[in-house]
């Protein structure tokens, strides 16, 4: 029986303090450009959409403006729809899928919904291809009052005026091989607990809300995405990432209790997508297309219900 090597930072069994977090931060390197990959594409959307800066991350010496995109001519009586991407910066198709949705499909809904899209919630992590922010915090466990994660706090402030008006929120994510090779081992080391290896599902799946699963809504998305890429099967225990499969390609979490992004509104329809970009059976283009298909299917379903 083999045992995973200890994470290279910290002492096994002891949570990180300031010294260990500083050591971790010193290892992070910029690997891609938020300006080139994201902001330039957002800038090109100004001809068709309203683009607003809703906050700014100050991780000295770097500063990252945060942008939201909305369709013009918001009107009372139309359903409010929220699409978010890049809560975890390393999950590339979450960001590029949101941008592709804006570029290719969003205008078709402009006269039926009030659409708000935040393509990259965590730009510092996007550039470093990381799950955490610069404070070694996971923004997707930090969506709650007095959040210590500035990415999460800024998004909460943005949606606060419309929180009870949203009918739909779809949050675009990925599950990658690095979840097991880096991010879950780092989490265990940071928290001073033993790392228990898991299994990465091969394919697309959804995380719904265990408090209000909305099964028909989740299945409508799965059926649409299945036309683009394959759906993750359950493992030998009938689970995906340790949670029971509620329906093909669907598991459920208590979104609000866990401080997850998909729980930040009171929308009737809430879900988190999970694409698997490391699959030998999927390309980056398919992953982006799957995110777009999921967003469109979610909106179509909500509109068909007459919300």
From TrEMBL:
Residues 30-307 form the Peptidase M14 domain. It holds the Pfam family AstE_AspA_cat. Transmembrane segments: none annotated. Keywords: Carboxypeptidase, Hydrolase, Metal-binding, Protease, Zinc. Its cofactor is Zn(2+). GO terms for biological process: proteolysis. GO terms for molecular function: hydrolase activity, acting on ester bonds; metallocarboxypeptidase activity; zinc ion binding. PROSITE patterns: PEPTIDASE_M14 (PS52035). Belongs to the peptidase M14 family. This is M14 family metallocarboxypeptidase. It comes from Oleiagrimonas citrea.
């Amino acid at each position: 029986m083999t045992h995973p090597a200890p994470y290279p930072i910290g002492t096994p069994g002891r949570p990180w303090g300031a010294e260990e977090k500083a050591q971790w931060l010193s290892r992070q390197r910029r690997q891609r450009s938020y300006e080139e990959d994201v902001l330039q594409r957002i800038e090109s959307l100004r001809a068709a959409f309203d683009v607003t800066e809703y906050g700014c991350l100050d991780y000295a010496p770097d500063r990252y403006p945060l942008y939201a995109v909305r369709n013009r001519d918001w009107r009372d009586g139309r359903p409010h729809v929220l699409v978010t991407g890049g809560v975890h910066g390393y999950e590339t198709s979450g960001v590029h899928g949101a941008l592709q949705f804006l570029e290719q499909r969003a205008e078709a809904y402009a006269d039926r919904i009030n659409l708000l899209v935040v393509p990259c919630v965590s730009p510092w992590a996007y550039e470093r291809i990381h799950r955490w922010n610069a404070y070694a915090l996971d923004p997707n466990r930090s969506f709650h009052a007095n959040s210590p994660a500035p990415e999460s706090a800024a998004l909460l402030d943005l949606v606060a005026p419309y929180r009870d008006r949203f009918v739909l929120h779809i949050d675009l994510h990925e599950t990658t091989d690095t979840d097991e090779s880096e991010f879950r081992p780092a989490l265990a080391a940071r928290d001073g607990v033993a790392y228990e290896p898991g299994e990465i599902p091969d394919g697309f799946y959804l995380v719904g809300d265990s408090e209000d699963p909305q099964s028909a809504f989740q299945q409508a998305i799965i059926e649409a995405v299945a036309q683009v890429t394959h759906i993750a099967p359950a493992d030998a225990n009938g689970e995906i990432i340790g949670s029971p499969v509620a329906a093909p390609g669907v598991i459920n979490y208590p979104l609000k209790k866990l401080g997850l992004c998909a729980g930040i509104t009171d929308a009737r329809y809430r879900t988190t997508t999970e694409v698997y970009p490391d699959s030998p059976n999927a390309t980056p283009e398919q992953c982006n297309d799957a995110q777009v298909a999921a967003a469109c299917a979610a909106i179509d379903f909500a509109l068909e219900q007459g919300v």
